[in-house]
């Protein structure tokens, strides 16, 4: 009888050890699953934070692009008004029978405009201005006085600023598109 009890106890002990071993294995697997879940949550939070930051940056860039667009439209409008005004004044001056000669020794077509814009001239946006080469779309020959050459110089500066703003706007739009693509990739 004692022998039967010892055998029963040994079998029970063996079963208990197997049960404990299985439970420890299950606990280890559960801890691994929890660890993976925790990592996934951390990654999800990080992605969410990056997505929010990207969205905020995209909104800021869109606002900057909109502001630049408004500035470009203003410059275009001023450029058109100025061109129209210059054409009207030029036509009036040149068609007048009492045409006065230029008060300076050098007429605008002789290079006065080019001398007003030096190699170190800078626009109000901090960009270095360059004298355009031949074939610029502003006609110097219709101008009759040094005052006009100053106006042409101003017009050329505004034109250059418009071109610079346009390039900057295109660059910002490209950055916005890149950020939107990255945000879409992160959300997938």
UniProtKB/TrEMBL annotation:
Region annotated Disordered, chain positions: 96-117
Signal peptide: none
InterPro entries, alphabetized: CCDC13
Any one cellular-component term (Gene Ontology): centriolar satellite
Keywords: Coiled coil
Residue ranges the record marks as coiled coil: 58-92
Biological-process GO terms, alphabetical: cytoplasmic microtubule organization; non-motile cilium assembly
Keyword Magnesium included in the entry's annotation: no
PANTHER family named among the record's database cross-references: COILED-COIL DOMAIN-CONTAINING PROTEIN 13
Protein name: Coiled-coil domain containing 13
């Amino acid at each position: 009888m004692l022998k039967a009890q010892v055998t029963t106890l040994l079998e029970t002990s063996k079963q208990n050890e197997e049960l404990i071993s299985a439970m420890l294995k299950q606990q280890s697997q559960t801890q691994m699953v929890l660890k993976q879940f925790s990592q996934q949550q951390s990654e999800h939070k990080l992605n969410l934070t990056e997505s929010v930051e990207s969205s905020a940056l995209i909104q800021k860039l869109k606002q900057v692009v909109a502001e630049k667009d408004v500035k470009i439209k203003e410059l275009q409008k001023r450029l058109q008004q100025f061109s129209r005004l210059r054409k009207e004044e030029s036509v009036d001056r040149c068609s007048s029978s009492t045409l006065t000669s230029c008060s300076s020794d050098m007429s605008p077509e002789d290079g006065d405009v080019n001398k007003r814009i030096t190699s170190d001239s800078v626009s109000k946006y901090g960009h270095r201005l360059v004298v355009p080469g031949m074939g610029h779309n502003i006609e110097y020959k219709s101008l009759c006085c040094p005052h006009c050459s100053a106006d042409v110089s101003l017009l050329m500066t505004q034109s250059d600023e418009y071109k610079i703003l346009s390039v900057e706007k295109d660059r910002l739009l490209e950055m916005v598109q890149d950020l939107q693509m990255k945000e879409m990739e992160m959300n997938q």
